[in-house]
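Hey all, sorry for the wall of text incoming. These are the two entities for the joint prediction.
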Amino acid sequence: MPAQPISDTSVPLSPTFTPPADPRPAAAGAKTVLQADDIARVLDRIAHQILEKTSGGDGVVLLGIPTRGEPLAHRLAERIATFAGVRVGLGSLDITLYRDDLRTQASRPLGRTVEPAGGVDGKLVILVDDVLFSGRTVRAALDALTDLGRPRAVQLAVLVDRGHRELPIRADYVGKNLPTSAEEQVRVRLAETDGVDEVSIHAGAAGTARAGGPA
Amino acid sequence: MTRHLLSAADLDAAGAYEILNSAEQMDAIQHRQVKKLPALRGRTVVNLFFEDSTRTRSSFEIAGKWLSADVVNVSAKGSSVSKGESLRDTALTVAALGVDALVIRHPSSGAAHRVTEWVDCPVINAGDGTHEHPTQALLDAFTLRRRLGELAGRHIVIVGDLTHSRVARSNVLLLGLLGAQVTLVAPPTLMPAGVHTWNCSTSWDLDATLAGKVAGDVDAVMMLRVQRERMGTGSSGGGRAAVGYFPTEREYAIGYGLSPARLDLLPEHAPVLHPGPMNRGLEISSIAADSPRSLVLDQVRAGVAVRMAVLYHLMAGADEGSGRTGTTGEPHPAAVHA
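and here's what came out:
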């Protein structure tokens, strides 16, 4: 695919292409963990950390994992440009076809994969997602990335790390560590996809967990 | 999503858009160095073809392979079918080999539907007689949507041997679902029986239709092949006409072929489609077929992406039991972050 900015909507959008609105009602017992200004501060910090850890962002490519990793990667790239005047590479990486539960889960709509200008070969790729939980999404993303090219190194940035890893995976940049029980649900909403910036924890009753969201 | 894809009528608008949108993502693989996605690893797809085919069979094969499925081609020629094996026995035999999806093309209308009664796996109709060819309609819609944008309110004209066309029926159903307006044009002898019950208008006058005088301005024209093999002439060469349907091939070409003059009648933005294989000089002139407005090769290319999307949506979650889209059953922990 020719290089294109992430905001490019050259893929024809249909009524069903919009990201799925979170169907869960704001249940009683929901606790807001991060509000809009908290999220802004957290992203400021991660952007600075990326600049620090990568010696000024040289050769960095941010790959957002749809749905909500995409706007997060976009915001981080904007901040890095503001803070250091560096335009890092920006793209998105859909992992749907690389999931390890395709056999047992009904088919899901595919997200976009947008290769960054200049590709990923020899770059320092930073995967960006909203929540790190089991680690299975990141495992799938590593497989998907292999099919795009051979980065020099791969790092991981997440807005929230809620624990309960099922694979040997850790994040390099964490917005907030959020101790949760396995039954609880963490809901991330972003202005670009949900109209509001908010991270909240919901008491999870069995069977109400939402399938189809990012892992 | 349905369990089988036998007819374009199996889809609702949401399902059709989901396949078309997935196909957009699948198509991006064409630009990759490694054309392989792991989605159907360890699954087996059988292409069971009782009729000749180049593009449908090979694009189903490529689609399956790019999704990492193992693909086996069984054609009537060279199989036990030529020894007189029945459709049921052939289907049961293939299913007994441990197949995860069956793609079937057969000269009898309804064959794919019958096969679903005998086998457990998803069945995809790759053309059954003069009935339906749903993946062709999907790839036509995909190609049109890329060129024209959303199809709601667009006016598509389909011209040619409609009586014998499974492509026309599937396209009328799918284009209607996507909100497009369809006009069918053919000589009276090639207009299907019962066409007044279809969701479309009809005309015998190609020039007036292309000029927008019959059903409004035209956004695309799709030429269909004259299917001599279904006209019972036994002879297809020498310019002999199909017995009983039109007097001579030359007369058909004059009345219903897409000549350079007719190409000029179309609005500038309107592309030309043909599902192939083309009879150049009969239903389409070489000038039209090779013009920049021709999307014939785009259609072939779209066939792979669309069939990847169909295989993915029908085969993902097969172990779940229902094989349907939705959030049934216990969510996988990884599906919820949540």
